[in-house]
Amino acid sequence: MNRCSFWHRVVSRDHLGPHVVWVIVSTLLLTAGCRKGVRPVAPVSGSITLNGKPLAGGSIVCQPLAPPGSVIAGKGSVAFCDADGRFQLKTLDGLDGAVVGEHRVRIYGPRGAAATSTKDGPVDAADDIVPKKYNHYTELKLTVPPEGTSEANFQLTSKK
User: Fold this and answer.
1) Is-contact 115 123, C-beta < 8 A?
2) 28 with 103, same domain?
């Protein structure tokens, strides 16, 4: 039996037809244009400094926190800093910005070639110039408003 003949039989039955059609139409109307669990995204940009200097080549990772009463947090966002420490977040699925709401923020220093030369000599690429209190043990947060923000700025210090 193909799908069309199945639905024709279900709908044409006098005792089931109207109820089944009503359930199907109601379900479609209630879910039309609504993707359960998807949170809106807004544009987010800003700058990061470390000890007053731009964090050139650094990176920022923002992971949304689930709102109260929900277990759905949404996709995270990431960005690399330019030479002036400026960044623009993109979600992990490529959308510009970050999920609206509160995020836990992790900030990392430059890696590879950008991290290999300092006034004190070469730096191991595994070393991070950003203290762990801003990444591994972070307490940094960012609240993304529905309209987005261009002022997601972080002033970090290497002092404890």
Assistant:
1) yes
2) no
